User: Fold this.
Amino acid sequence: KAGVTQTPRYLIKTRGQQVTLSCSPISGHRSVSWYQQTPGQGLQFLFEYFSETQRNKGNFPGRFSGRQFSNSRSEMNVSTLELGDSALYLCASSPGTSYGYTFGSGTRLTVV
Amino acid sequence: EDQVTQSPEALRLQEGESSSLNCSYTVSGLRGLFWYRQDPGKGPEFLFTLYSAGEEKEKERLKATLTKKESFLHITAPKPEDSATYLCAVPLGDYKLSFGAGTTVTVRA
Assistant:
């Protein structure tokens, strides 16, 4: 079956702009999580959604937001981009009843 | 403070040279420990879940074990294709995984 699909794979944005990343989970999975991965901080939890409700949020500024649609697809948005937002953004999905998350290949965001 | 620590940061092995990676955690009420493998430019790939001390899981040349304070990932007779970064993670709070910094394994032919 198809895995977790993230689009786009690569993105270059300018400081101050905003960006939207998309994630399509595995069919039947209702939980979607987002993580930021950088060389210095490793994998950091951003937020988790289940049935369109945010159940948990990490320690990131309000510029980072997300949402989930009724078909479980999810988007995350970063406004007023900063150079430090350059990272690999990973989406993971699970059925919602365990932590057995399957990750996508990520979106590589570069802010210049 | 809850945290996950992996060691060593990097491991260089000769093909066939077995070794172990360590993941120590300070979490009260452990609700599972997860091992992932990550190749450059890709997302983490799930390997194992361990839930209780004494539990062991195996997959090809990899074997994961769990104690009350740490987990080990043993790589037996590694091959170059086992080169990757290995990450461990534990649930912290609800629906959130806390990851270690990872161990980057390089296996030379």
User: Anything to note?
Assistant: The CA atoms of residues 32 and 49 of chain A lie 5 Å apart.
